[in-house]
Amino acid sequence: QVQLVESGGGLVQAGGSLRLSCAASGSMFSINTMGWYRQAPGKQRELVAAIISGGSTNYVDSVKGRFTISRDNAKNTVDLQMNSLKPEDTAVYYCKMTYRLYNYRTLESWGQGTLVTVSS
Asked: What per-residue confidence (pLDDT) applies to 4?
């Protein structure tokens, strides 16, 4: 089972920036999709940004132009650079990866979550 460890959350004022990082460890053949999700209090978890192995990305409309997802395939890491943060970005952010084992079985893992709080 691949383990994901997130870092970089915290408290920031509106208009500020934060960078979230997620590192994968464990035995795997390859990582397919890496993504960041978030869940605000009382709301469903939503996909914020994702990046596939080829580098293509997609973002939820509310963060386009403000957030940037990137991955380092050599280090098995995925980052989320968040700029121009708004109070509505406040949520617990989760990293998720889908990966393939050496027997070609595809699995997914979630990080433990990191809290991002944006004050107005």
From this structure: 96
